[in-house]
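Handout, section 3.2

Students often ask what a structure token actually looks like in practice. Rather than define it abstractly, here is a full record for Copper homeostasis periplasmic binding protein CopC. The first block is the sequence as you would receive it.
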Amino acid sequence: MRLPSLALAAAALGLAAPQIAAAHTQLVSSSPAANATVAAPTRIELRFNEAVIGATARAEIAMTGMPGMASHAPMPITGFTAQMGKDRKSMTLQLRRGLTVGTYRVTWAAAGADTHRMSGNFTFTVR
């Protein structure tokens, strides 16, 4: 009776192990949050599921929508600084001034201990 229980437990652990080992860096939250509408932020905070390797962390900000301009190309936002948190699970993008009214896309890339570079993006709107 014990042998089948042990075999079942071992099989379950074997199925879970690859998922644990294959964990990659993911964005778990941001401020402003994805799809949020906010007043002009002066900083953007990214929070990851694991500590990231600082040299691999990158972020870009682009204005993708502006009132009165239905289809303009994304306009990169420059002049911000990026700083990793002490826990290496967060990154703060400090802007020189608050963002103007419009829609913005933040694109990020980072790698954790497994060194697999992951990336993603989210949008938010400034009112």
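Discussion prompt for tutorial groups: The chain is about 15% helix and 40% strand. How would you have guessed this from the sequence alone?
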